[in-house]
Amino acid sequence: MNVTSSRREQLIHIPERHKFVETLGWQPGIWGGLFIVEACLFSLACKWPLTALEWEILGPSTALGLGLVGYEVWRRRNRTVLVRDGKHIAVFRKGCLDLTLAPNEITRVKAGLVTMLEIGVPLGACAIIFATVGIMGLLRDKAVTADNLMILSLGLACGASLASAAWTRFSCAHLWVPVKGSKWLAKETVLVPSARLKELFP
User: Whole-angstrom Cα distance, residue 191 to residue 151?
Assistant: First the structure.
């Protein structure tokens, strides 16, 4: 299949079975959602009108949350797509053909056990601790309070982040793919389902 003759139109007409669309975890969305939830709960716990200090907490938290959620939406709309093109692999970014590579120009990388533990153990511990404290607080107070919900939501976010990290680590292959003409990024990490790796590199 020749996909190098044109640019944006080609990706649209390539059969789905030939596309290897970048798989993404949910880290920006998880933490962005947490900041928005925490901001909402914080505003409920405060007495209106808010003080200057309370606005300094609420404003940045909301802005950061919206920024992360917006980035999550943006990156999902602009996934990198790899297409097997004979003996080469075509790389599409933002719907356009970016470059064509030989298979050996794409490198598979694996996270070491130490790195996995450094990320997974703290996230798992925080998930258990904050979720437990939040639930115990709700049971103790026998009422739903903003403070306990803020603690519980932090625990749930840590748990969701750990689950997302584990899923992308164990079910996806991490590939280093060169980026054409980038001043800031020579290569980007592209995740594809491990089950389809043999289709991409037969």
Answer: 32
